[in-house]
Structure formats: C-alpha cells, structure tokens
Design a protein that fits this description.
Elements (H helix, E strand, L loop, with lengths): L5 E6 L9 H15 L4 E4 L3 E5 L6 H8 L5 E10 L3 H15 L5 E8 L8 H15 L4 E2 L6 E7 L4 E4 L3 E5 L7 E6 L5 H11 L2 E9 L6 H15 L5 E7 L1 H10 L5 H19 L4 E3 L12 H8 L6 E2 L7 H11 L2 H4 L21 H8 L4 H10 L2 E5 L3 H13 L1
Helix pairs in contact: 3-4, 5-10, 7-8, 8-9, 8-13
This protein binds adenosine-5'-triphosphate and magnesium ion.
Length: 403
Amino acid sequence: MIIYSEILVRYGELSTKGKNRRNFISALERNVRVNLPSQKVRFERDHGHVVLTHPEDYAGIAEKLQKIFGIHSFSPVIKIEHNLQALKDSLQALVTEVYHPGQTFKIISRRADHSFELDSPQLNQVLGDLVYDTLDFAKADMKHADLKFRVEVRDDAIYLSYETIPGAGGLPVGTAGRGHLMLSGGIDSPVAGYLAMKRGVDIEAVHFASPPYTSPGALQKAKDLTRVLAQFGGSIQFIEVPFTEIQENIRDKAPAEYLMTLTRRFMLRIVDQIRAQRDGKIIINGESLGQVASQTLGSMEVINAVTTTPIIRPVVTMDKLEIIDMAEKIGTFELSILPFEDCCTIFAPPNPKTNPKLDRAEAYEQKLDVEGLVARAVSGIKVEEISASPEHKEEEEEFSDLL
Ligand code: ATP
Ligand code: MG
C-alpha cells in the first residue's frame, strides 16, 4: 500500500491572471480548506500543498479535490527522508505496486538542494537502472512514457510522485464576485448554478416556496441540491422566500393566461432586491430557450423588463438532453427528478401565454399592491448556510444528544 504524505495542487487559468493572482490563490485555498476541514493546506505562488494529516483518507480527499474549481491538476506525493537509499527503497516499492506489463516509464528528477550527492542527470541514470533491475521487462520512453516518476530533492526531504489527476478547471469560486441563483427543484437551475460557479461566481441560492401549496419535501429538495453545489466551491447561503401571498393574489386578481408571466416578474423583482441588499452583482437562472412558455424570447423580454440587472442564463442555448447529461455528471439529476411540486406550477393554467405583452402585464399589475407584496416577501426571507459535508454537523448533533 502506498502512503501519500501530501498532494501537490497545480493551478489552471490562474497563471494568466497577473495582478489578481494573490486573490485567486487565497480564494482557492479557502475553498479547499472548507471542503477538506481536517487536512492542513498551504498555497503558494505556483502550486499548493495539501499536507495529509489523515493519509489513510487519500481516496476520499482526491474525490473532493477533483470537484473544486480553479485546480488544473494534482498529484499525490510520497515524502521520503533525505537520503539516496531511502529514495531507492521507496521508488522500488512504488514501481512494483503500480507497474503493469507493457508499460513504458521515465524518471524526471530535479535537484533543488544542490548539496545532494547526485545531480539530476545522475539521479535519472541511477533510478532508471533501478527500475530496469526491479522489473525485467520495463522499457524507458523519453517522449511518451506511460509512467512518469517525478523525483524532487529539496532541502528538507525528497518528494516522489507519479500520477497526475485532472482537476475541474475553471476559476476558484469567489473570484468573480457574488451572484444570486434562482434555484428551483428542477433539472436546469442547479446546472446553471454549477456553470456560474465554474467561472468563479460566488452564488447564493434563492428559492421560492409557497406553503401549504408546496410541501416541506420540495423545500428540502432545493436545500439538498444546494448541498451538492457546495462541493464545487465552499458553503452556500440558501435563501427561502415566502411566496404564498403573492401567488394567491395573482391567482385571484389576474387573468389565468398571464399568471405565469406575472409570477415570473414578481420573482425577478424580489431576487433583485435581495441581490442589492446582499452585495450581488448579477442574477443567474436556469432558463433554456423554447423549453416552456415562459422561456420564449417574447416571454423573456416581458419578464426581464422589471430589472436592468444583468441576468446570466448559462443553459439558455443548451438542449434538454445536454443539460440532463451535465446534471448527471455533477450529481444533481437524481435529486432533481424527485416528484415534488414547484411553486410555479401549482396554479399554472393549461395554456399560459407564450407571447405576452408588456403593456397588458403592467395593466394587470396595477390591480395588485406590487410594492407591498414584494417588500413583505423580501422581509420574510430565511437564510441558512449550507455546506458540502453534512457529516460534521450530524456527528456534532449525535454527540450533543449523548450529553
Ligand atoms: P428548472 O429545471 O430550473 O426548474 P424549468 O425548465 O422547470 O427550470 P421553469 O420552471 O420555467 O423552468 O423555471 C425557469 C427558471 O426560473 C428556473 O430555471 C429557475 O431559475 C427559476 N425558478 C423557477 N421556479 C423557482 C423557484 N421555486 N425558486 C427559485 N427559482 C425558480
Ligand atoms: Mg422548474
């Protein structure tokens, strides 16, 4: 069994971002820390280190690292005592464990500590010979080796690694500023949130609930989706908006064919106020062109008319199957298809207008106390922080039960 002592983390697009570099690195460090609370992490100019305080958890840690945006690739590393014999013993053990017949190999040595007895070419030679001796059939290949054993001799120790695991790419969550995601329990909005996070947006999730028409299960589903999204950055603030009064008002006072249009306009006004109060710069939603009546260009125009805040629609041009494919990959699909009602569908008429008119929408709103309704919804929000690892909380709760 190989025991890794740390993980070397390489940055992706970060390297191109000149003076913002320090912000990027500290955002990434923070996100890694939040998702790996029990490990020691340290990030520097060109790479980061996760020092494994619990090396036995390596597989689980690697799985979490693979989801964090801003990481280009990472390599688990074995730390060896500063002497040639110890290096040889470790390399021999590693090679024996990972080599498959037919594979080619290469040794890539770097001697940062110039007082070490062998220089880099000598190290390559000596260690290459060792691999030949250990495995009768191994072939070296300088250009396209299957296994690349990297040896780095530093002052404190020697570091050995061979695997490079691709990261999630993108930019660290938080580096682009904050945005508010309109998160239903459907398939599209979680994918939209994921894509915004991938470009560094620190999202807060805004969910409209209309109890008793919508159930506690529907609310829980939105929270569970938020927890899945939290794996890609740090924790996420979940904001529940009480929407019942507004939906009843629209149902009672506006024509059924405009119900969907007006409902959407209210949602957008509310999200926009929450965004302004909470320092968000944009709104993100899961609209996809032509998918349903509210997502025609005509509908979008009338709904969008209530705000000039930029609205980012990451899945707007994707086909449903492409969105589903991505939802499956990021782990939201199974949750999204659980059968709970959404507030938007509870009073929905069979034939919503696909081509609503702005002047008609505004005329119907004259009969409603738009300002008062919006203000009450905004003042009634409930905010809860949701993080990726519920285990810690549950453990704490179990523990406090015992006290
Ligand atoms: P989704 O799969 O994201 O639910 P959808 O295809 O079902 O999308 P709609 O129900 O028309 O489309 O919703 C369009 C967008 O409006 C959603 O993607 C989401 O961003 C937002 N939205 C809808 N319902 C809610 C809700 N209850 N809370 C917050 N946002 C919502
Ligand atoms: Mg929906």
